């Protein structure tokens, strides 16, 4: 399939995973085209940088006659998208993004999938960065447009391939099969297992069953601190997995964790050895993500002396606790957290870095189904900030808002602390920003939608404080 595809059309090319897939094909020497909506997205710059053009909308007339392969995802209607239907009518190879990734994984001798319901983008990017700095020139695809000086997708003829393995469905609602079940990597790093994607998974048992099937027969690096991962260990071959974490039952145990204004430091204890690491990331969760990378690298045969500098120099990922603006007193960050556990982890990292500052979160929930299923948990997590301002829910194209009796007001009501307030529009919040923001605040735009587009308005409000 990969060898015979020379002219590739990608539907929804501005989605992060699709954009990085486009970059990979471009680096393979393929001709790449695509389509998407007119809205500005965080991948626009990545696509333009790699000379990949796209058409606006999903008109069948925009599909070049020369294409021999069309790739689609669950977004923009999936197999119901008019361009996907037209491709099939033309007898063009029409294939899901998940199957393309499965094909790619098969091409590499050392394929590594980074999975988990939270932290997988940071971990996959960190692992890719470390391998790049170790001069083995990996291929990789992660769930961000860029990380520390590199694009989010790369192709080379090295034996290494890092893939961020998404647990979502192949083509909902027609095919809710988890993408994980298509992938057959040699190694799996799993950061955690949690209940998410309620439109795909009935309950936590269904999620765990999927991960268990994914794990079978692979070489595993697993987080011992995660209760849902621990519950599966008895069902796995004990010779096939290594665990890491703060737990004293972990094979690789984190001790002496410390945080300061420049990052974090910790000691890794295993086999009576003590290895010291410094990182530029913040929070205990990011130390866990780091150790997942370290353990995998050690398992691959890299030495401590070689990996400690790449580990120290990784600065992070776009939209993952990303510093957007600072006047050295007031700070604006942007974060992709869209699940209650991710929100808690980000707030913990902020509290460790800025011990005496007021924390303001501007939150946009992603999908009605997730908001409804985890409403109580959202209220609990968001109330950990000093003030949280909630915007209207960013819907999935697969959802119909009228089928869900839930809104941003319900998120505000989900906490009894009284520190969560909802706004019906972006403009209403923008009007209030000068009254909300004070000198010395830490502000975070948070969510998987387009809340990050508020940055210019927030920066203007920060600058007005001085006037």
Account of the protein in words:
With 467 residues, the chain is of the alpha/beta class. The chain has three domains: 7-95, Rossmann fold (3-Layer(aba) Sandwich), CATH 3.40.50.720; 108-313, UDP-N-acetylmuramoyl-L-alanine:D-glutamate ligase (3-Layer(aba) Sandwich); 322-464, Mur ligase, C-terminal domain (Protein-Tyrosine Phosphatase, Chain A). It is built from 15 helices and 23 strands. The protein has helices spanning 16-27, 44-49, 82-89, 97-106, 120-133, 204-215, 227-230, 284-299, 304-313, 340-353, 368-373, 375-382, 408-413, 426-436, 455-464; strands spanning 7-11, 31-36, 55-56, 69-72, 93-96, 110-115, 139-147, 150-154, 160-164, 169-171, 175-178, 187-190, 219-223, 241-245, 252-260, 263-270, 273-279, 322-326, 331-335, 359-366, 387-394, 420-422, 442-446. It has a ten-stranded mixed sheet, with helices on both faces. Helix 5 (120-133) crosses helix 8 and helix 10 packs parallel to helix 12. The chain starts with 6 loop residues before the first strand and ends with a helix.
Let me know the average pLDDT: 90
The biggest beta sheet is recorded as: 10 strands, mixed
Number of strands: 23
Radius of gyration: 22 Å
Shape: globular
**Helicity, as a percent range:** 25-40%
Question: How are the secondary structure elements laid out?
Answer:
Blueprint: E1 7-11, H1 16-27, E2 31-36, H2 44-49, E3 55-56, E4 69-72, H3 82-89, E5 93-96, H4 97-106, E6 110-115, H5 120-133, E7 139-147, E8 150-154, E9 160-164, E10 169-171, E11 175-178, E12 187-190, H6 204-215, E13 219-223, H7 227-230, E14 241-245, E15 252-260, E16 263-270, E17 273-279, H8 284-299, H9 304-313, E18 322-326, E19 331-335, H10 340-353, E20 359-366, H11 368-373, H12 375-382, E21 387-394, H13 408-413, E22 420-422, H14 426-436, E23 442-446, H15 455-464
Parallel strand pairs: 1-2, 1-4, 2-3, 4-5, 6-9, 6-12, 7-9, 12-13, 13-14, 14-15, 19-23, 20-21, 20-23, 21-22
Antiparallel strand pairs: 7-8, 10-11, 15-16, 16-17, 18-19
């Amino acid at each position: 399939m990969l060898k015979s595809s020379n002219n590739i059309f990608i539907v929804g090319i501005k989605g992060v995973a699709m954009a990085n897939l486009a970059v990979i094909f471009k680096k393979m020497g393929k001709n790449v085209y695509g389509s998407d909506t007119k809205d500005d997205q965080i991948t626009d710059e990545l696509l333009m940088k790699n000379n990949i053009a796209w058409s606006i909308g999903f008109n069948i007339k925009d599909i070049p006659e020369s294409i021999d392969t069309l790739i689609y995802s669950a977004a923009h209607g999936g197999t119901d998208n008019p361009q996907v239907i037209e491709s099939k009518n033309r007898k063009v190879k029409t294939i899901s993004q998940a199957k393309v990734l499965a094909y790619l994984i098969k091409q590499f001798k050392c394929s590594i999938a980074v999975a988990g319901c939270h932290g997988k983008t940071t971990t996959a990017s960190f692992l890719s960065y470390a391998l790049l700095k170790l001069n083995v020139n990996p291929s990789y695809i992660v769930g961000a447009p860029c990380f520390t000086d590199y694009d989010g997708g790369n192709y080379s003829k090295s034996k290494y391939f890092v893939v961020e393995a998404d647990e979502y469905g192949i083509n909902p609602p027609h095919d809710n099969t988890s993408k994980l079940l298509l992938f057959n990597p040699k190694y799996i790093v799993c950061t955690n297992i949690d209940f998410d994607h309620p439109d795909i998974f009935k309950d936590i048992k269904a999620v765990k069953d999927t991960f268990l099937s994914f794990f079978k027969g692979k070489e595993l690096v697993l987080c011992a601190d995660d209760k849902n991962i621990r519950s599966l260990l008895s069902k796995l071959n004990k010779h096939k997995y290594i665990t890491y974490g703060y737990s004293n039952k972990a094979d690789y145990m984190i001790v002496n964790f410390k945080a300061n204004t420049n990052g974090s430091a910790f000691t890794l204890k295993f086999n009576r050895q003590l290895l010291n690491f410094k990182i530029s990331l913040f929070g205990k969760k990011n130390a866990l993500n780091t150790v997942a990378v370290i353990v995998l690298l050690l398992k691959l045969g890299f030495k401590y002396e070689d990996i400690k500098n790449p580990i120290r120099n990784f600065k992070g990922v776009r939209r993952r606790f990303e510093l957007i603006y600072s006047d050295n007193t007031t700070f604006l960050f942007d974060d992709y957290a869209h699940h209650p556990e991710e929100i808690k982890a980000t707030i913990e990292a902020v509290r460790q870095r800025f011990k005496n500052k007021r924390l303001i979160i501007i939150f946009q929930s992603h999908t009605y189904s997730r908001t409804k299923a985890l409403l109580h948990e959202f209220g609990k997590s968001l109330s950990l900030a000093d003030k949280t301002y909630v915007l209207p829910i960013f819907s999935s194209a697969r959802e119909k808002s009228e089928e869900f009796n839930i809104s941003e007001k319900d998120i505000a009501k989900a906490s009894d602390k009284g520190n969560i307030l909802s706004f019906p529009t972006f403009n209403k919040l923008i009007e209030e920003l000068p009254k909300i923001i004070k000198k010395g605040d830490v502000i975070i735009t948070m969510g998987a939608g387009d809340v990050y587009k508020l940055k210019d308005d927030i920066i203007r409000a920060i600058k007005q404080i001085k006037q």
